[in-house]
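Usage

Read records sequentially. Each one opens with the input sequence:
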Amino acid sequence: MPSELYKQINYAKAYRKNRLEAAQWVLENKESFPELLEFCFAESQEDISHKATWVLEFVCLQELSLLYPHLDSYFERLPMVKKDQSLRPLAHICELLTIEYYKKKTPEIQTFFSKKHKAIMTECCFDWLITNQKVACHVRAMTSLYFLGTEFDWIHPELTQIIEQNIHSGSGAYKARGKQTLASIHRFRITGKR
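and closes with the structure output:
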């Protein structure tokens, strides 16, 4: 018999309203969060897995700290996700994590977001940038890699090279985020400030 969470995320139409309602249900029933993560990475249930990632994205926008104790599991399975419908929200969550860790410097995330997690995120983000992904995935990867590059100095030169190679043929969104990222890298190089 399907769980209550399954019923919440197995909506017929992918309307924003349905995603928000399912996310709100998870926020009110936080004990369901580990099950939501399981659905996100359930390869045998592709239809439910991308719906779960959409809900996870909204949950993390509201309360990212729910993910912190599960970062090992999240990053262990992230490289295996290939479907665009799932990658877009998962890339957004990577961006949220780097902003929380590097820009906001939230104390709680400092104890959870490990070097191993950062290494996996870096690999995934570069992979998304150099493969045929939707622009939403590219721009989230750029921001994540920019912040990771403020800690790991080899990242910025690689990121700069990729952006400069692709910016002229990229979409408007790619060009805008690419220019912003290059400017941020330049500023960081000069001032050392994120």
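Summary fields computed downstream for this record:
- The radius of gyration is 17 Å.
- The CA atoms of residues 130 and 162 lie 8 Å apart.
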